[in-house]
Structures are given as structure tokens and as C-alpha cells.
Design brief:
alpha/beta; 4-stranded parallel beta sheet; 3-stranded antiparallel beta sheet; 4 helices; 30% helix
Length: 155
């Protein structure tokens, strides 16, 4: 397994992370959990980006998927884990972050959901989009994953 694993909650996020690593000159592979299980060639890259398709899962199912991969990385001697979340806080993010912390209890977790290029910034522990609190944007009406609060501590 790669030294660093990036876990994404959807394919778009996985490809975005892979492109950012590549742009920085870091070789990486983007794959799915089922491929990671079967494909030893993912170990040939310093960074492996895994799409877990967990955004629309129930919190306990998403936590299990993320926790299993985080534990596998730790047991394989991996050095680092990056969890790509939706920059508008959609999905079972809290459950996924708790699963990572359970797998790596001796490490600190830093959660930074900002994406300034898209006008998404955190001020005072609250996510703003285009200068408005997240819960006052169209993301609060998302048909699949509405967001009711931009306060990070609530995650």
C-alpha cells in the first residue's frame, strides 16, 4: 500500500485530489476500494487516492468503510492519511472523521473544509460561501444531502 492514502467520498473529489498531487509533482493513483483490495500495483505509488463513494451512505456505513481503510493503512505502515470531504459539508463527515481518529488514536486530526478559490472560507468556526453562512445558501436545499448548519463543531 502507498505511504500516503487520500480517501474521498466521491469520484469527483478523488480525481480533484489526484490532480492536485500530480500538479505538485507527486505521482499518485486514483482507485476504488474494490480495486485497492485486488490490485497490488497501487503500492507502486507514493500516494493512493481511494474513492469510497461514502457521501450518501448512512453514517455508520460510511464510518465502517473509512475506518476499515484507515486501519488497513495503519497496519501496513502507512505514514499519512488525508480525508477529502465535500467543501460544503455534505455527507456523514463527523462519522468518517471519528472512524479515522479511532484507527489512528495517537495522531492529531486537522479538519479544514475551506476552498477559498470557490469563495468557501471558515471564520470563527463557521463555513461561509460567498460571504453567507452555509445554512443560508442553496446547499441547505440539496435534494440528496441538505446542510442545515455551517458550524464545524456540530459536525
Amino acid at each position: 500500500m502507498a505511504e500516503v492514502l487520500a480517501i474521498a467520498d466521491d469520484l469527483t473529489g478523488a480525481l480533484e485530489v489526484g490532480a492536485l498531487f500530480a500538479e505538485s509533482g507527486v505521482a499518485n493513483v486514483v482507485t476504488t476500494r474494490s480495486t485497492l483490495d485486488r490490485d497490488p500495483s497501487t503500492a507502486d505509488f507514493p500516494v493512493c487516492v481511494v474513492d469510497l463513494e461514502s457521501r450518501h451512505l448512512a453514517a455508520e456505513d460510511a464510518a465502517k468503510k473509512v475506518g476499515d481503510v484507515a486501519t488497513e493503512l495503519r497496519q501496513a505502515g502507512g505514514r499519512g492519511l488525508y480525508k477529502k470531504t465535500d467543501s460544503t459539508l455534505r455527507g456523514p463527515i463527523g462519522a468518517e472523521l471519528n472512524a479515522i481518529m479511532a484507527a489512528w488514536p495517537d495522531r492529531s486530526l486537522v479538519f479544514v473544509p475551506a476552498y477559498p478559490r470557490l469563495g468557501r472560507v471558515v471564520r470563527g468556526g463557521r463555513l461561509f460561501i460567498g460571504g453567507r453562512p452555509l445554512e443560508n445558501t442553496d446547499f441547505s436545499h440539496d435534494p440528496l444531502q441538505p446542510v442545515y448548519s455551517g458550524w464545524l463543531r456540530e459536525i
